[in-house]
Amino acid sequence: MTDPLAPLLSLPGVADAANAAKDAVFQVHRHRVNLRGWATTAAEASVRAARASAALEGGPTEIPSSGEVSDPVLAGSLRIAEALGGLVGTWQRAPLQALARLHVLAAADLTSEVGRPRVSGDVSSRLDLLASLVTGGTSVPAPVLVAVVHGELLGLAPFDVANGVVARAAARLTSISTGLDPKGLGVPEVACLRRSAEYEAASVAFASGTLEGLAQWVLFVCSALEAGAREAKSIADAALTG
After folding, report:
1. Is the dihedral of CA 134, 187, 154, 201 positive or negative?
2. Between the CA atoms of 214, 216, 218 and 224, what dihedral angle is there, to the nearest 10 degrees?
3. Integer Cα distance of 237 and 89 in angstroms
4. Are the beta carbons of 155 and 203 closer than 8 angstroms?
5. I need a labelling partner for 191 at 20 to 30 A (CA). Which of 9, 77, 150, 201 fits?
6. Alpha helices (H) in the chain, listed in sequence order
7. Is 188 within 8 Å of 176 (Cβ atoms)?
8. Inter-helix orientation angle 72-83/38-56, to 10°
């Protein structure tokens, strides 16, 4: 059976960028703190990822000192952060079920239509194809699959609201489940927020379906994974000295 994502590896710079992303994430897992104290650093990474993802969706980045989050976008993103680890197995065997759960968590305070993708156009067929890729339908390097999951969900926007938060959470699940970032230490979401204009432009390029657009998006995601690994290193360094 032909691998539908294999052609992406022949696009200029993609194979090298994927390898660089893998190496960067691997190295942060070898950090002294992360060899044993990774649960603490992973928790911090998860919260930073949630805050950045919410901000990209128009929510605030700051959690009130009281701990009571009233903003619905940030609240949904934080709910996902708390639940993500428990969804890894479901994502590996039944990704559409996991996707529905992500939307329930993300959009509970935004709409009553939670967990159900739009019934229009080619939404269903494209989600089915994405699910087949996640469950073993491709052998491309993990960063490339992460990019495709992220970009396809952003472009398809299968739900009425909170598609960005869901897409970034699904990308994070893919990083964890493929073994690229099994402990969830990286924070590529922060890089996406810091380079939000470039992030948006690259996602539009991916949705265009052109070879140049596909390459632009995959290269962006790989660079965000590298930047996310640097963010993870700063978290671990702080834990070492703190």
Report:
1. negative
2. -160
3. 30
4. yes
5. 9
6. 14-29, 32-36, 38-56, 72-83, 88-93, 95-107, 123-132, 142-156, 163-177, 188-194, 196-208, 211-241
7. no
8. 150
**Token representation of residue 178:** 């493929």
pLDDT for 67: 76
Look at the block and give the residue holding tokens 């699940």.
173
Which tokens go with 56?
């990209």
- Nearest Cα to 223, choosing from 173, 64, 194, 2? 194
Q: Which residue has the tokens 């104290």?
A: 37
Cβ neighbors of 126 (< 8 A, separation 6 or more) are: 152, 156
Q: Show the low-confidence residues of the chain (pLDDT under 50).
A: none
Give the tens place of pLDDT for each residue, 23-48: 999 999 999 999 998 999 999 999 99
> What is the CATH topology of the domain spanning 6-59+71-239?
Fic-like fold (1.10.3290)
